[in-house]
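Obj.: predict assembly geometry.
Materials: sequence records (below).
Method: joint structure prediction, all chains together.
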Amino acid sequence: MSDLAIVEKLKAKFSSEVINVVEFRGETTVTVKKEKIVDICAFMRDSGGYNLLCDLCSVDYLGQAPRFMVVYNLYNITTKERIRLKAPVEEQGAQIDTVSTVWGTANWMERECWDLMGIDFVGHPDPRRILMPADWVGHPLRKDYPVQGPDREPYQGRLS
Amino acid sequence: MAVKSSEIMTINMGPQHPSTHGVLQLILELDGEVVRKATPHIGFLHRGVEKLSEHRTYHQVIPLTDRLDYLAPMSNNLGYVLAVEKLLGITDQIPERAKVVRVLLAELTRLKSHLVWLATHALDIGAMTVFLYCFREREVITDLYEKISGARMTSNYFRVGGLSADLPAGVEQEMREYAEGMPAHIDEYEGLLTGNRIWQKRTIGVGTITAEAAIDIGITGPGLRASGVDWDLRRDNPYSGYEDYKFEVPVRQEGDTFARYKLRLDEMRQSSLIILQALDKLKPGPILADCPKVVLPPKQDVVNSIEGLIHHFKIITEGFKAEPGEVYVGIEAPKGELGYYLVSDGSAHPYRMKVRPPSFINLQGLPQMVEGRLLADVIAVIGTLDIVLGEIDR
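Observations (raw structure tokens):
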């Protein structure tokens, strides 16, 4: 149960889109299907007052289906409330619509998400790598990407 | 006489330009001296902190956070340990003394960060004296850091559950004297800058951003408050006991570089007041929570008993496990909202750690603030955004 009124409104408006609502340590997480993510985000901004997108990132649940989860941490500057939206993205194709039309700040966050996790944001105005070099191959934050980098032996610790 | 058609010249600024505060590269398209387009290129300092943290125990991540915003290491430590404590569900078990020391050092860190901001901002615009004065004051804070944590910059001082060590003797008095003397120093900087006509010409009306645009682009912290948005996480979503302190949140309406300058100076005055309040609150007591599964045992037990040694060994080698779940904690770092998003799968390592660095998001506003303005204003705007590339590139 969440005490945020917006959750009920969201359930009423997008009843077929909301997958589940989870409470953990006083934080509300709403998982929604990715198809109408732009509409849902615009609804959260306009009706819920969540005018600040604090953070956008993704999590790689390697071995599960769908593999990726795109996470939106929202904040309402008027009521000082937080809520989290999540949208599952399957491995094949790995794409979701961009929300940079809803919050301008999503522009760089989505670029980072594409760069490090390889999730394609459809309709993104500037889909370039941001942290890694432009000619880099692979997406380092994926769980099947080795921490020591490609083509290297894993670090075994100091020998002495 | 025919008007000459304008010609766009593309120039490269950075990544080794002294006023880009690190390794920021800007591709500027200039029409004469007017910036038509500015494209920031970042990532030169990317070290993969988020990836590395997935392969470390929760405690081993703390030193990595020091190196994000290296001008405000204690704030980074604080955000991270608060996130882990929330994930573990031990937020309300943190002893009072640890909470007060955290506030004390977070505010000292805010002073430290703002001093470097003012010093370099003024130096970039051509006021060198201020730089020397600010670094004189900052030096005292680095000395205090050294006494408290052993390191002048990468402090690694906070621990999940409390602090790594208690404050050394005598340091409280030094902090009190420092905080009491700070307003006079701020007056000194203001005397050099506020009424200075060159300073005013370089900052008033430069890099103006409206509240709506600032929220849309995600600017937080002093940059947002200088555009008229009254929002400070310390007051509005208090953490670590900030609700018990009396302080004002300065807000200004103009949204330009001068407003951000005045606002940060006001914040520094408030920070010194918070430091004095925290020192008054500081009472002897435990500095670590009573959570044996999470915190290290006292050194005395480790050297004197086999149980203590085993306990120490287990926490150091295996770490502690957090139940599956996810939390997001945002704190008011000197540069804006610093957020940590932690996902746990029940193991002893963070399954995913995402840092929401304020500078990364604030820098996104740079093109909007400089396009259509003069090349010289780019320098002023970089200074006023108060970016640190260590935290942008992670």
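Conclusions so far: The mean pLDDT of chain A is 86.
To do: check interface contacts against the pulldown list.
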